[in-house]
Amino acid sequence: MLVHHSGNKSKEFFYSYMRLILLTRTSSIDEMQKIVESYFFNGNIEEYGEHTREQYIQALKQIQSENDK
Q: How far apart are CA 10 and CA 67, in angstroms?
């Protein structure tokens, strides 16, 4: 998936992005988180600013809560 890193990303963007990773690369939430933080954020979740980081965290919490059900 080609991702343009310009602009603020929404919670919905990260939710979709992470669901795609879970469907195609791994079923582990921990592994998916490592993939996103390594490849999208280049190992630094602060890289694209506070708004993008917060949206990522909110989407991650939503996926984790759905997985716990």
A: 21
